[in-house]
Amino acid sequence: MPATPPPQTYRVKSFGCQMNVYDGERMAELLGAQGLTAADEGAEADLVVLNTCHIREKAAEKVYSDIGRLRREDGSSPLIAVAGCVAQAEGEEIMARAPAVRMVVGPQAYHRLPEMLRAAQDGRRVTDTDMPAETKFAALPQRRRSGASAFLTVQEGCDKFCTYCVVPYTRGAETSRPFADLIAEAERLAEAGALEITLLGQNVNAWTGEDAKGRAIGLDGLIRALAALPALRRIRYTTSHPNDMTQGLIAAHAEVDKLMPFLHLPVQAGSDRVLKAMNRSHTAESYLRLLDRVRAVRPDIALSGDFIVGFPGETEAEFAETLALVEATGYAQAFSFKYSPRPGTPAATMDGQVAPEVMDERLQRLQAALQRSSLAFNQASVGRTCEVLVERRGRREGQWLGKSPWLQSVHFANEPWGEARIGDLVRVTLVEAGPNSLHARLLAPVAA
Ligand code: SAH
Ligand code: SF4
Ligand code: F3S
């Protein structure tokens, strides 16, 4: 590869989960600290970072079409770095298949991007998919900017090894970031304007640490400490695992006002045989009883989940158990996916792979049930008065979009007596519900 002049501009494109969005922000800050500036919308960047997701085949294949799209008419390309979970899982393959890629960097090694960039400028192609013991976070520049709603990764990796899932391989073992670092980062984010922080982890409720007095605490302890920061108004966390849902965390939903009444708790399937084959180590019944305990302390909690249809061997009767669980739970929202065999995972070579048409049909039925459930949840909230954090302008002039405490998308219009702004926390009454959003009436801005 020929040597290249130092890049002046960058673009980071993140795919996949919220943790990738967080990592993408941190990579952008790192490149900014190296003197690069973000490329303008529509303009070509000198350096493009594709921050990829490996969770399903479609997501993973996207990286190759994206690399193709970056090719210029004369056959050359900008400097391309592939980061994220595809980089971790298929680094060598990317280097072999896509000669335009100069850097491959895994999710635990991206703090080393500056050195890699220098090597790439010298004409080398470099891969770093180490999972170093020292944490990348210590090597990253401090947070300086934030929107009203910010992400904060507190826990990474997964030790659960569900038989369909690549995350334990792409993100490594479960680790928790130290309490003091998290409080410091949250303070910086709040100073930079964050009113809401969403704590992130592949199993966020597996977070453990020691508080300022050296006492062992879990995620609930961290949440309580964050709630004491006056500038922070809302706290959320995702994704939690049913097996790490402690009594302390459940109690926090009753006791910490700033902790929003929302719980994303994936269950994946409603059949105990399928759950066992998935290595989920919970049953449908234990999951439902857990939800009962959460509802007992926080009756208005909005529940969310993840579902996989067509896991190897799933019969029609077993799928019907997933539908029954959806009916029994009354989800406010949920994500559902067709099973995608992932290389290297145990499920990929299991007998009884389900035909694509069968998966399509099951997914449609599941999504219809989940839509009915969301509509019912939203309809039941009509008439409630609540706070909405304004995120962006709506399609119509004077219209705004934001999130309710229950993470519903809420739109409302300015009133003759007052206008909302992005980043405001406003008080509204919910007046009309659809399956994906609600319409509200603006009551008053909420005083800081
Ligand atoms: N740690 C979280 C979720 C991580 S991945 C948890 O365990 O709950 C997000 C979701 O992607 C999973 O909950 C699952 O529903 C889905 N998923 C993971 N692997 C998949 C696969 N091979 N095929 C289809 N969906 C998958
Ligand atoms: Fe994947 Fe299971 Fe870990 Fe979630 S708990 S990241 S689904 S292995
Ligand atoms: Fe995808 Fe990696 Fe997140 S595989 S879902 S980007 S942890």
Reconstruct the topology from this structure.
Elements: E1 9-14, H1 18-33, E2 37-38, E3 47-52, H2 57-69, E4 79-83, H3 84-97, E5 101-105, H4 113-121, E6 126-128, H5 136-139, E7 149-153, E8 155-156, H6 167-170, E9 175-176, H7 179-191, E10 196-200, E11 208-210, E12 216-218, H8 219-227, E13 234-238, H9 247-255, E14 262-264, H10 272-277, H11 284-297, E15 302-309, H12 316-329, E16 333-338, H13 356-380, E17 385-393, E18 399-403, E19 409-413, E20 425-433, E21 438-445
Helix pairs in contact: 8-9, 12-13
Bound molecules: S-adenosyl-L-homocysteine (SAH), iron/sulfur cluster (SF4) and FE3-S4 cluster (F3S).
Radius of gyration: 23 Å
Principal-axis shape equals globular
Distance from N terminus to C terminus (CA atoms, Å) equals 55 Å
The biggest beta sheet reads: 6 strands, parallel
Regions with little confidence, pLDDT below 50 for 5+ residues: none
